[in-house]
Design goal:
287 residues, alpha/beta, 3 domains, SBP_3_CS, Solute-binding_3/MltF_N, signal
Length: 287
């Protein structure tokens, strides 16, 4: 059986001092100056620990690989922590798809902008869940769909806004969004709409309840979940017309390794969709 091993790319961010100590002082079994090596070893260890870790190569334990996957922390019902376990609709879909190809997912819940940054810096194998856009399909290997999401607007129960037909009807309002999220191209790029960014949907809805924003936008299931969690269902309502209904994806880097990972996971997801398994998982969360 293979031993548990992790092979990382070189730590390019190790400081010049760390490199000097490693090379000149010969810390390790080839030490040329043992007394310096002994004295400097704790410092080098500190430098190595403090240095950002690059994207890990495939980790194997027996027959199984492990991929580091980032996502937004606290994004119920899709991905969130319950009693110390990371769970949710998308987590369940991805875990099952990965297991079918002998891969374990090492989930790393993060603030969304941090998750995107870590992914683009090469510290993660993949990140989910992403709304589709031409730019993202060009830059990443987009795998999916995991599922579809109906993106909607929510306002206070006493708001005079009943619905909207065109986006310009929102131009006099303050719309709460989650920083780093992509909702729909025309909405995202419309500079006439005043957008108020927040860290997550919970903060967004609190701003709505306090009157700091007029409307918030998000996935129907996630906003409904937040309203229940905040015991605010009788204080808010959805606008009838959705902004858009679109798929959600998991992204891999556009490199050789990312392409291979994406191809394997895409086949697994296709099989789950074809068998009705994804629909079954979604139904368990919606109903």
């Amino acid at each position: 059986m293979k031993r548990f091993t992790t092979v990382c790319r070189p730590l390019a961010s190790v400081t010049r001092l760390g490199r000097f100590l490693l090379v000149r002082c010969g810390i390790g079994r080839h030490a040329k100056r043992p007394w310096i090596a002994k004295a400097a070893a704790p410092l080098v260890a500190t430098l190595l620990i403090a240095a950002p870790v690059g994207r890990a190569e495939t980790v194997t334990e027996g027959w199984r690989e492990t991929w580091a996957v980032g996502s937004m922390a606290g994004f119920a019902p899709y991905n969130h922590t319950v009693d110390g376990t990371y769970t949710g609709l998308d987590v369940e879909i991805l875990n099952e798809a990965a297991q079918s190809i002998n891969v374990a997912l090492n989930h790393r819940p993060l603030p969304w902008n941090r998750a995107l940054l870590d992914f683009e810096m090469g510290n993660l194998d993949a990140v989910f869940q992403l709304a589709p856009s031409p730019e993202r399909f060009k830059r990443f290997h987009m795998v999916g769909p995991l599922r579809t999401t109906r993106t909607v607007f929510m306002t206070r129960i006493d708001s005079s806004l009943q619905d909207f037909a065109e986006l310009d009807e929102l131009s006099d309002l303050v719309v709460g969004i989650v920083a780093g999220f992509s909702y729909e191209d025309s909405f995202d790029t419309d500079e006439s709409i005043l957008k108020e960014p927040s860290e997550d949907d919970f903060t967004n809805m609190r701003k709505l309840l306090l009157g700091r924003v007029d409307v918030i936008v998000g996935g129907y299931a996630s906003l409904a979940y937040v309203a229940r969690a905040l015991e605010a269902e009788d204080q808010v309502r959805f606008l009838p017309t959705p902004l858009v209904e679109q798929a959600r994806y998991i992204a891999f880097p556009r490199d050789q390794r990312g392409a291979a990972q994406a191809e394997r996971l895409q086949k697994a997801l296709d099989a789950m969709h074809g068998s009705g398994r994804v629909a079954s998982i979604v139904e368990g969360y919606v109903n």
